Amino acid sequence: MSLSLVLIFGISIFALGFAVFLIKDVMKRDTGTPKMQEISNAIKEGAEAFLRRQNKTILYLAVATTALVYLLYTFQKPELAFWAALSFILGALSSVASGYIGMWISIRANIRTASEAMKSLNGALQTALRAGAVSGLFIVAMSLLGVVSLFYIVLTFSGHPVEKIPFFIAGYGFGASFVALFAQLGGGIYTKAADVGADLVGKVEAGIPEDDPRNPAVIADLVGDNVGDCAGRGADLFESTAAENIGAMILAAMLFKSNSAVFGDNPATLLLIILFPLLARAFGLIASIVGIMSVKAKETEDPMNALNRGYYLTSFLAMIGFGVASYWIFGTGAAAANAPTAWWHFFICGTIGLIASVLFLWITQYYTEYKYGPVQSIAEAAKTGPATTIISGVAVGFECVAMPSIVIAIAIFTSYTLGNTIVGMHDAGFFGTAVATMGMLGPAAYVLAMDTFGPITDNAGGIVEMSQQPEEIRVKTDRLDAVGNTTKALTKGYAVGSAALAAFLLYQAFIVEIKEYGGTLDGVNITKPAVFIGALMGAMMVFLFSAWAIKAVGRSAQAIIQNVRDQFREHPGILLGTEKPDYAQAVDLVTKSALREMVKPGLLVVVMPVLVGVIFKYLYKLGYSDASGAEVVAAMLLVGTIVGVITALFLNNSGGAWDNAKKFIELEPKDLAANTGKGSEKHKAGVVGDTVGDPFKDTAGPSLHVLIKLLSTITLVLAPLFI
Hints:
Blueprint: H1 3-27, H2 34-76, H3 78-117, H4 121-157, H5 165-168, H6 170-205, H7 218-258, H8 260-263, H9 267-274, H10 276-294, H11 303-330, H12 333-338, H13 342-368, H14 373-381, H15 386-399, H16 402-420, H17 429-440, H18 444-466, H19 471-516, H20 529-570, H21 573-576, H22 583-597, H23 599-621, H24 629-667, H25 681-717
Helix pairs in contact: 1-4, 1-10, 2-3, 2-6, 2-7, 2-22, 3-4, 3-6, 3-7, 3-18, 4-7, 4-10, 4-18, 6-7, 6-20, 6-22, 6-23, 6-25, 7-17, 7-18, 7-19, 7-22, 7-25, 10-11, 10-18, 11-13, 13-16, 13-17, 13-19, 14-15, 14-24, 15-24, 15-25, 16-17, 17-19, 18-19, 19-24, 19-25, 20-22, 20-23, ...
């Protein structure tokens, strides 16, 4: 076994071991008062019950899809059938496990964070972040370990050349994306249906505070933070890293094939180049561990500053690790002699991706944090009611797509140009863009830790509120909760940015794969009617998917709203505080509704590209189409990706801006005569805006991240069907 393989295996296992160390560190912390434990246990039971039902549904769909993949390959490429099916089911199972780990630690860390807040802000901050790091490290390390293990197994037992192996394991990314879509959809529908129901009936109609124990939907709302933001996002980021790793390995194999004069014909060199993406990711894991353990905050400090310091340290160390990997692979041996500038060109490409990730976080922060103008403009618009609140939020959402699009464009252009200008190397531009994507995902484990930090601190605040702890404790958890809202928004920006670069990488891998299987596809000619139709179908699918996802939240929310109203009407003692609401009834109701509603939009994304590709394949064979099925699917993939990225940015940032505009109003001094603070008409308008934004930022938007990559992975895996 080569040194690079040993190193990748070793770092992955070390990261998993370190995650276990963090679990022990978090679990030994105090669990608070009996009342806090009662609330935490209710959240835990609800979250685990939902995820059991959801995973059962997803696994049924995954097994059926595995069988379908096997049958389709049996007719088209029988030598790939077994490996494609095995890769798919392993990717699906790994994605399920990743999502479960994120939720498992979150529902146990919430009460420990709340209890630590009774002692110090720093203790609560470190508890939440280290629990989040368990999720981040497990997801990135399992993705890395899964890809390298599958690569090694296929290499050892398939008997095929090493450059063919990445094509054999492409199903791993497809399986991960398949599960991630349903996990993000189901969790997103659940969390926002519960949130909308709790807010509209509790805060607007009944006039009771957020997380008030009298609200029957409040436990369902807190459960939703875990199943949507932890389990769903965990599966989302798992499939991002898995699919990007495999796509980059495919382009690495093509780079070697196109530059035999540079690399020679040494199989060890080929293996090293194919493993470059995995090696760079492994060094990113080490950087994330150091960054996570460095985070510490003073009692009077804004916790966001401490998290930012950790992120910048992680990014800096990831950049150094990337430089080491680049020099090791391309700065020594034959590559150094024949293309001496290659290593630092690729190092700069990775740095460009890393800088792009930082810029995405800054841009997202500007448009979603209440310190800045866009959110404050929405809060100002709330003075004149819900209508102007909605108008202002929509305008902010449309505006916010400009800067990220420019960042993506610059990152792709500069990394492509750097790859193409390597002296002595040919056709390295597309691999340069792949390297930029690898750089962007370098600090992924730390970013995931910040993401899971959000729902943990949100739950901690809910536990403190419901258990009626002293005001000074609530102030601490409110500070952490506000930071958690920001980190969740930042992670969505990071996720959609990485999705954009990864989708471009996977699009190029699709073109390469078509050629590998004997097809001809040098590009996409949009002037052909069939190709234009494919592009149109890709754009349409994004909007139809978003509509179905948002409507699913609306229908599920209607059920929970009616349940809360019925409980208030039939049991007047609930609002008086003399009778306990039926939390379990609300949890069960929204669980059934969310699982039922997730199937239709999920199947749309899986079925539509296959239908379009196969239909136009046969129309082309019969002479009725001017473009092959592969070219039509490529157009659908390209335009669907572009529209999906733009729409996800709009949905994520407008939703986040509405949410923080409401929080900005809540921070104002309460003065009903002046129309400021909680309970004012301005506040009620802010709540309406937040409610409209909920399915945008937590259901449709995050699900579009997965849609973008699922489109890429499904076309990559099923490419032989379209030829």
